[in-house]
Amino acid sequence: MEDKITTLSEVKKYIQDFSDARGWRKDQNAKDLVMALTVEASELAEIFMWLHSDEADSVREDEGEFEHLKEEVADVFWYLCRICEHFEIDLSAAVESKAGKNAVKYPVK
Q1: DSSP states of the chain
Q2: pTM listed for this prediction
Q3: Which of 15, 47, 63, 89 could make an S-S bridge to 84, C-beta 3.0–4.6 Å?
């Protein structure tokens, strides 16, 4: 899969199928999914925890650390997609709606 050719629907379906095959969705509930997302977001933040702001982009230069970054980003996205599926949220529509609200709240000067 690649961003340029894979739709968001295809990614969400892939995550659903992967989770179903392992029986992960049958007992899912909103609280556990949100808690898992929070844990994964914390693991993403942990990569940068002790880096000075000037050093944060250097993660890209360390092959192992960059791979770790990609894994944690994927985990965060994974649980975000599972939450959307659980609540039947159209993520693209939600992003567009929020952008519209933000455009009113933060107009271009």
Answers
A1: --TTT--HHHHHHHHHHHHHHTT-STT--HHHHHHHHHHHHHHHHHTTTTS-GGGGGGGGGSHHHHHHHHHHHHHHHHHHHHHHHHHT--HHHHHHHHHHHHHHHS---
A2: 0.89
A3: 89
